[in-house]
Amino acid sequence: MIDRELIKRAIAEDLNGGVDITSMATLSPDAKVSAQFVARNEGVIAGINMAIATLAEVGVTDATALVKDGDLVKSGTVLIKVSGNARGILLAERTALNFLGHLSGISTLTSQWVNAVAGTETKIRDTRKTTPGMRALEKYAVRMGGGTNHRLSLSDAALIKDNHIAAAGGVVAAFSLVHEKFPTSEIEIEVDNLQQLRDVLPLKPGLVLLDNMDPEQCAEAVALVAGATKLEASGGITIENARAYAEAGVDYIAVGALTHSAPNFDIGLDMEVE
């Protein structure tokens, strides 16, 4: 996946209307280099095409990917080889590394959550807790880590949360209003206790979000719905207790941390002047 407009803005931000002072002073205009993007950690890679497109944006087109997004790599793995104008490569270096490190961090963290529930039917999926302007890329990185995506935007589907429920006067009223005004939209509704779940079940929601329930309550909810609707657990879930929720039988575990708290994946650029 490539977002060329984001790349343009990122490079413009780095230059801030000026030039790369250090490279202009230390490198001749025609200096050539060869370089390698190298993983410093073990994890799942995402953002290879964004890095290569960043290089291309500054005129460096001789870049070869040695791995693909979604690949599990070891520390020391060469991800991309590139050669060309030294000033261009150094201009693109930090922006390319920022994209590659951030997206690979998301895919790596996602893969760890996916591994934590391996062997169950539960899927790990993201939320809208994304970096403004980077949602599509961050959700792409989640998929590369083996996770699944929740709605991309507010207009994709309805998610009736506690504030909507309070404003409407209850779960039944809130669901009925949304269904009346947007009858073809997918509707997910949040409940924070089993009675709310019982109240909304006759309305046949496609998905119910179990908010801040423990694994035992989630297991009760699974038994209560008996397959009539899909269930998603959210709130108070950690990678350490994720398996308990998965074994309770929920269909999804929503994890905002996949995008808002993923650590950067350490990648370096090793360069040789020709």
Q: Would you kindly provide a written description of the structure presented here, covering whatever features stand out?
A:
The chain is α/β, with parallel strands linked by helices and 274 residues long. The protein has 11 helices and 12 strands. The chain folds into 2 domains: 4-106 and 263-273, Aldehyde Oxidoreductase, domain 3 (Alpha-Beta Complex), CATH 3.90.1170.20; 115-260, TIM Barrel (Alpha-Beta Barrel), CATH 3.20.20. It has a 6-stranded parallel β-sheet. A 4-stranded antiparallel β-sheet has the order 3-5-1-12, covered by helices on one side. It has a two-stranded antiparallel ribbon with strand order 2-4. Helix 9 links the parallel strand 9 and strand 10 (230-234). The longest helix is centred in the middle third of the chain and has 31 residues, at 86-116. The two termini are 32 Å apart.
Radius of gyration (CA) equals 23 Å
Provide the CATH architecture of the largest domain: Alpha-Beta Barrel
Pattern of helices and strands:
HHEEHEEEHEHEHHEHEHEHEHE
Largest sheet: 6 strands, parallel
| Averaged pLDDT | 96
* Principal-axis shape: elongated
SS content category: alpha/beta
CATH superfamily of the largest domain: Aldolase class I
Number of domains: 2
Family: Belongs to the NadC/ModD family.
Function: Involved in the catabolism of quinolinic acid (QA).
GO cellular component, one term: cytoplasm
EC number: 2.4.2.19
